[in-house]
Specification:
Helix content is 34%, strand content 26%. The strands form two sheets. A five-stranded antiparallel β-sheet has the order 1-2-3-4-5, with helices on both faces. It starts with a strand and ends in a 12-residue tail after the last strand. β3 and β4 form a beta hairpin. It is globular and about 35 Å long. The longest helix is centred in the first third of the chain and has 19 residues. It is of the alpha+beta class. It is built from five helices and eight strands.
Length: 182
């Protein structure tokens, strides 16, 4: 198992196309993902495997980071993904996270996102992080603000994409708000 980050309740590990295709397919077609992130057009496990290989797995090789599988440590349940995405239209790596609906509302997104921010700061030594959020996604907006991200304005990450709210956080300033609980 390729664990990258551990918190009190969670394990964030490298995504593996064969191992994670079914769970990723479920996440990409989860109503919350579709509503707040968008339809990636992934409809079967083969497409999910390609999505993982061409996305996070490629990003690990090219950038040294990507999205990670989020698993609950006590029972290995696959909850969703969290990590960093390098988008050509953003000025810095993008904090991303998404959970399957049954795992929302338990603090897992907050715990995973805090851990990713700390990892970006302490291990990767990144100077700044971005995050994008659908303007109507109040829960993610609150989480980003809690993590010390500040709104930068609206933008489109692609010509054919909906507007998103861009957030950013300077990681060169030490704060305790992004540290995972032991």
């Amino acid at each position: 198992m390729s664990t990258v980050i551990e918190t009190a309740r969670l394990r964030l590990r490298l995504l593996e196309p064969d191992r994670d295709a079914a769970a990723m397919l479920a996440l990409l077609n989860d109503p919350g993902f579709l509503a707040h992130i968008g339809d990636r057009g992934v409809r079967d496990e083969d497409q999910a495997r390609r999505y993982l290989a061409d996305g996070s797995v490629l990003s690990y090789a090219q950038n040294g980071f990507g999205l990670y599988a989020v698993e609950r440590r006590d029972d290995d349940a696959w909850l969703g993904v969290a990590g960093l995405v390098l988008r050509p239209t953003l000025p810095c790596p993008d904090l991303g996270y998404a959970l399957l609906r049954p795992y929302e509302g338990h603090g897992y997104a907050s715990e995973a996102a805090r851990a990713v921010v700390a990892y970006a700061q302490d291990t990767l030594a990144l100077p700044r992080l971005c995050a994008i959020v659908a303007p109507d996604n109040a829960r993610s907006t609150r989480l980003l603000e809690t993590l010390g991200f500040a709104a930068q304005g609206r933008m489109r990450i692609a010509a054919d994409a909906h507007e998103v709210e861009l957030y950013a956080r300077d990681l060169s300033v030490q704060t305790n708000d992004a540290r995972p609980e032991p």
